[in-house]
Amino acid sequence: MKMMSSRRLLKFAIFAGTSVGGLTLAVNKFGDPDSIGVIRFGRAATTVLDIARLYKRTLYAKKFDVESAEYKELRSKVHTEGAQKLLALCRKNGGMFVKVGQHMGALDYLLPAEYVECMKVLHSKAPESSLKDILKVVKKELGRDPADLFDEFDPSPVGVASLAQVHRARLKSPAGSGKGEVVAVKVQHPCVRSNADADLKTMEWLVEETKRNIPLELDFSLEGHNAEKAQDLFSKFPWLKVPKVYWDLSTSRVLTMEYVEGAGQVNDLEYIKKEGIDPFLLASRLGNLYSEMIFRSGFVHSDPHPGNILVRKKGKILGDVEIILLDHGLYADLTEDFRARYSRLWLHILNGNREGMKKEGVSMGIAEPLYALFVCMVSGRTWDAISRGLETTKFTTDEKAAFQKEIPNLLPQISDVLATVDRQMLLILKTNDLLRGIEYTLKTHQRMASFRVMLELCIKSYYNERLNQSYGSLERIGVSLELRWMLLRLYVYYALLPLQRLLQMVPSMNSLHVASIRVIADRAVEFLPKLTSSASW
């Protein structure tokens, strides 16, 4: 009989609490008590202790059989109560606390469902500022009364995030020209800048990285330039929309952009089903977009939580979908050297090359004993799945449970990895987590469509690096042929994979014809593990 480990649960409670709990200490000069660092820190510390006591007086009160219905029911109840306490803290403190809560709300594949469901509301329903305060910011930033700029300004925000909220508005129309254009006006919360300074005082391994990133996110003019750069870089995707910026009505604290009508959040399954959107096509396009960002352009949108990715039906083609990318405040700029190392790391992971994984991990700042944990963090898979081969091993509920079970025990080691890893990797890890959460919500993770796209671009990135380092036409021809052979094998593998799965569903069919097809399909799906065997990774 399996018994409950109280230390493990305590660690999880501390993990859930300290994910947002160790953020503030400094006192600022504003009169609002919620802007005083000591009060915010005290509130966070109290919440952490409350959550820990909750687990101690319930799940720790006696020994449980973890497989029993009694334990599972109680565990769910405790998780829900703990999550509600955490959500209340995020709402009360706002700012950085909401950002961390949003991240937790996207980790469907990792955290207990009760925490994820509770935190999801922060993706579009974070604490909002009053209309009076918002209009004060608009007037201060644009230097004019909002009534002189807008014919309409919706008092209710269409979306509220951690750092700002968005209002639908209509521009003043030139005399005799009819109605003005409808725009989305993003306005920074009044106290978020000062609170951010206070919250950053007690960050640990995240201090330096967050200190670099938060000021960037608080400069809305930079966000506007990022949006335009993304539009230029990814214009090859006709299904991607980045709203245009109205620069004459934008400053560092107010950003006015095109208003996009008729779209739903990427994780709104009811909306996706109602609109007839193909979730597998959606997942594939998301994978394509982010693989392009990571492996080719090096310009990576690093806050892809569901509130920042909208979708809507595109044209009249059945299942077609348009992706609208919002909130361009935070991008990672990856160097060519980092992208090459990251590509090699993924190919070593896919090939099961432990020495290669270790070598690339060390090159990214990871201590040798922690390379396996680092690989699990990058791939979002258990070491057992990696050892058996990711290309043939689907992410299952059992693997999710194993992940959730072990994470609390590995927090010190995870902290060590995050403290020493190449700073470029931090935003990639966050981005990977959020994208996996979206794919898990869409229930498309077992099809591995985005995995195929990523693998293709990963292979191309690796071979392009080799081409750039090649001397002489013969060597370049050899590398080019090797690249084409690798891609051919990949395409054959994925083309025959559905056939292999179909034949696995009808094992009782004994005809020679079907048996022959099954052999061909089985041989085809063995290609991928061998893709890397002939290459000098």
Automatic annotation (TrEMBL):
GO terms for cellular component: mitochondrial inner membrane. It comes from the Eukaryota. GO terms for biological process: lipid homeostasis; mitochondrion organization. InterPro entries: ABC1_dom, ADCK1_dom, Kinase-like_dom_sf, Mito_struct-func_regulator. Residues 122-359 form the ABC1 atypical kinase-like domain. Belongs to the protein kinase superfamily. ADCK protein kinase family. This is ABC1 atypical kinase-like domain-containing protein.
